[in-house]
Amino acid sequence: MKNYLKLVNFEFNRVVKLFTILLGITLVVQMAGVIVQSREYLGRANEKMNEDLMSKAQFLTDYGQISFAHIVRSVWFLGPIALCAAGVAFYIFLVWYRDWVGKNTFIYRLLMLPTTRLNIFFAKISNILIMTLGLVAFQLILLPFEALVLKWMVPDDFRNDMGVKETITSIPELTIIIPNSFVEFVLYYGAGLLAVAILFTAILMERSFKWKGIIAGVLYSAMAILVLISPVLLQELVLNGFFYPMELFVIEIVMGIIVLAVSIWMSGFLLKKKVTV
Amino acid sequence: MKKYWKFTAIIAVIVLSIGTFYVNSAISADQNPEFVIKKESGDTKELEPLVLEGSYQGASSGNYVSRDLKITRQGTEYRNPSFLNRLIGSPMPVIESLQEQYRGFMRGKSPSENLFFENDRFLAYANVDYEIGFNSRESKDYTFEIDILNKKEDSTDSFTMKVPDANKMDHVFVDDVQIINGELNIITENMVRDNNSDRLYGEKHIYTIDMANQKFIKHEPIIKEPKGQDNTHFDITFIEAEGSTKMHEKLLFLTTEREVIKDRESTRIGDTSREAISYNLKTKEKRRLSEDLNLEENEISAFDGSAIYLTKVNGQKVMVTPFHLEKKQLGDSYLFQLSDKPMNEVPPLIKIKDGKLYAASNRMNSNTTASVIVADLKTGDSLFKGELRIKNSEDEIEDYDLYIHDIFVK
Fold it and tell me: What transmembrane ranges does the database entry give (chain A) (predicted)?
């Protein structure tokens, strides 16, 4: 356990730069988005009211109040989120391959550590999870501050205040990263973790057998997906809806756990016996 | 420990931030108003079995919301759209209790009340299955899927039967399933293709099946859309009886014929004539009821298998008149005062159960009130009279609508 924690901490320190950069970009771009968009809105209000001599009430009925939902729906806001997602996706591969390339192959030292090699796998997958959740948590903290900036920028009459929860539930794009209930949160990120475990196994296959390993990795991933969706396929095509929805749900979770266990076992096997430096 | 500070900090931030968010959203109360049924006269105990299902639409801090809800004697319960609730779905109460009681038999069966029949000996299910062809004009090979549970022997009989003349049909829907005198009756709506005019005609069809030998005894159309009338629109509706899983000897259909007037510029609907037809499953005879029912003035609001309940809205008053199919005559009418404020001319929702009539208005907002009434059908006495209200007066808002879609009596 202690070895595992040491390794996680070690891995985290290696990604902390990338992580901080992503946080920084999110903070700056989103804040800029809030400011730019509220100014744009106020500018339009000024123009309509001063130049076109539109009354304030008329402007509000024609253009509506500005709410945080308007800001969230823009590239200023969703762009950094997409960038962070891409960053994590990229790092899923980088977390392994960076150890093989470079002047002195780092993986050699990692594999020589006096601990079970599966800990390397666990440390890397934990890091992906920590990074992802860290970004989500940061977004959750950032939201009320951004709403505050909007409050400073726009006068009361032109503004429709929304709480954090309201903002998230009213925007489907945000419910993907922050689901409405904790059960869904666990399921979404559990599924994500499973996907990363399958990918890691495929990467280790490639590292162990090179070109043949790529084929093995693709086959393994396809098999894993097939096993995962097999209960649904059976339910629809063969069993004619035999299972009640709740039963199917439990079967799916069991399937997920089985595939996760197989991926971990397979990765452990590859790390111990097959991986080459 | 100093070595681990970044790592410890990020874990703490994750747990605190995400934890606070979900804890907050779990404990923050629903901001939508709570509706209650406020008593005006009578006994609130009469409300015990009543469930009003509807939806609330309103503006909460400038944000448009629409939420499904249930109103009972206890108050309002907003349907919680949580992930697990959505996953399980919410089948009708009848289906839910059947699923609890006969879990094995109910597997893989479409959860519609009209596909089931239950008496003390049998639980029967019939539905139509078909292969999807490559193009819609191909015949679809319609088959009845029939499952009959014999409750005493605890055995299930499952068989399939090809729908006769299926190659001429475009759609087959099951309207009702009934076992009468040991024979299984499946009542369907068929869309039949007429080869000469290349048009589809609707019809209500009955298939009578010998359950022991799994053979058709007889099948015939009950009502057919008349052919060759291109300037009318003809529609046949099956009126589902209260508790359609229970045995009913009599079925009720309503046909609507609308004249279609085609001008050079537009098409509009002209005169409409409606006709109610009852069908006796024992004698296989049908009877027109139009003169007795006076459908020009009355609406059919409910049918409990032996009586049809007609309603007529007149200002704020609703007149309910039962028509007894056996005696072929109208019963005494009851007049209900629904609400004091002006209301729309839509008749209220009516349910009949165990000799009691339950009625509720179908809409409420700040200009109209919604009434809830329970009355004894034998005596015509009102057992309960009340109004829907928002529980806390400080929750009163200007702009909202409450729609009641359906009422259930447990």
Answer: 15-36, 75-97, 118-143, 186-205, 214-234, 246-271
Residues A20 and A151 in one domain: yes
Do residues A150 and A184 share a domain? no
**Residues B133-181 pLDDT 10s:** 566 555 577 889 999 999 888 888 888 888 888 778 888 899 999 998 8
Residue A216 and residue A151 share a domain? no
Single residue among A154, A171, A188 that ends a domain in this structure: A171
Mean pLDDT of B31-51: 83
Beta-carbon pairs below 8 A across chains A and B? 85
Q: How far is B308 from chain A (nearest CA, A)?
A: 37
Question: What's the domain count of chain A?
Answer: 2
pTM of the predicted protein model? 0.78
Same-domain pairing of A8 and A85: yes
Same domain assignment for residues A162 and A225 = no
Assess whether A23 and A73 both reside in one domain: yes
Q: What is the 3-state secondary structure (H, E, C) of chain A?
A: CHHHHHHHHHHHHHHHHHHHHHHHHHHHHHHHHHHHHHHHHHHHHHHHHHHCCCCHHHHHHHHCCEEHHHHHCCHHHHHHHHHHHHHHHHHHHHHHHCCCCCCCCHHHHHHHCCCCCHHHHHHHHHHHHHHHHHHHHHHHHHHHHHHHHHHHHCCHHHEECCCHHHHHHCCHHHHHHCCCCHHHHHHHHHHHHHHHHHHHHHHHHHHHHHHHHHHHHHHHHHHHHHHHHHHHHHHHHHCCCCCCHHHHHHHHHHHHHHHHHHHHHHHHHHHHHHCCC
Min distance A235 CA to chain B CA atoms (Å): 9
What is the residue range of A47's domain?
Answer: 1-171
Please determine, for residue A104, whether its predicted confidence score (pLDDT) is greater than 70: no
Lowest mean pLDDT among A78-87, A105-114, A179-188: A105-114
Task: Determine the average pLDDT of the residues in A108-112.
Answer: 78
Boundary-marking domain end, from A117, A138, A171: A171
Q: Choose, out of B107, B115, B147, the residue to mutate when testing the contact with A (most A CBs < 10 Å).
A: B107
Do A186 and A131 lie in a common domain?
no
Across the interface, whether the CB atoms of B21 and A243 are under 8 A apart is answered: no
Nearest residue in chain A measured CA to CA from B25:
A165
pLDDT greater than 80 at residue B57: yes
Q: Report pLDDT digits (tens) over B63-96.
A: 567 788 888 888 888 876 677 777 777 777 788 8
Interface of A with B (CB under 8 A): 5, 8-9, 12-13, 16, 65, 67, 130, 133-134, 136-138, 140-141, 160-162, 164-166, 170, 178-185, 187, 239-246, 249
